[in-house]
Amino acid sequence: MARITHARAFMVDLVPKVLRTDAIQSFKSQETIFVEVTDADGARSMGYSYTIGDGGPSVLALLEHTLLPRLMGQEADAIEAIWRDLLFWTHATAVGPIMSLALAAIDTALWDLRGRRTGLPLHLLAGGAKTSVPMYTTEGGWLHIAPEALVEDAQAAQAQGFRGSKVKIGKPTVAGDAARLGAVREALGDDYEIMTDANQSMTAAEALRRAPMLEALNIGWFEEPLPSDDIAGHARLQAGTRVPVAVGESLYSPGQFADYIAQGACGIVQADVARVGGITPWLKIAHMAEAHNIAICPHFLMELHVSLVCAVPNAPWLEYIPQLDEVAAPMARDGGLALAPTGAGLGIDWDMDRLSAQTAEGSRIEIREE
User: Active-site positions?
Assistant: First the structure.
């Protein structure tokens, strides 16, 4: 074991290559917050977190003034102890997105450090359930895309080996959503999985109106139909449909997932490793879901989640949204299968020169052990 002696943080703003819209917003950018840690033996690692265009400087401020100074001198391998210490140290701001996103940048760096020191990839460190996972693509299913373009994208994905596509819903009428989904189902056939995502845009009544249509089209899941704090509404909806209700990208702690599961309010959990505070809590959520015979299908961050879904047995899908290609080597794929990285730690091959060149002005932070 070796104590942490040095940390630095910085932010890189990654603008999406395509327009990404859903029922409530447009994805402006990925404010990617990086944390690099160094231990007393000179071993170095890097973790990261993100926002979708707002709040990045707030995450950095929490890292600079509170979390990274507290991290100095701690034993790097005591990941669970560090995670709980930092969470308690800032308990007045937890549970919430800014705290979780900042904590995730540190926690992923510590797991990366453990992997680099042991020579093991993350998917083996965290469980080693499998070495590959099927992907579904979200990149061609945004809400502004016309039905014919949805079909073209899904057909191209199917030709590449993808086994499913996600289509955003939340048009003003049920017929509007049905037309888009029906076009994809008719063109792709019954064996191609179609997922839907409403991005918390609906009332309970509107979600229930759409449920029979989704059942008729054999939709894989109904994601974030209601505001994330409406657990009771999700429970009523799940009880009223055979389509699995998927939740999780807007939840920030294992306890929030426990409440959903206990109330029968979801059929699929979608924990986002950044939004729940890192790998340490993500694994707890995955195992909690497994104990209740529920699948975990994480949101976004495919380059990091690929290792986690390959670590656990109850993760049947990886969401394909490429976002790091500008600053890292592309994720390994075999057609529509994502392959678990074999490199030590997170297994992400960062382009450090590009990261340096694209670092946002004024975002560099450096903390050393006194």
Answer: 168, 299
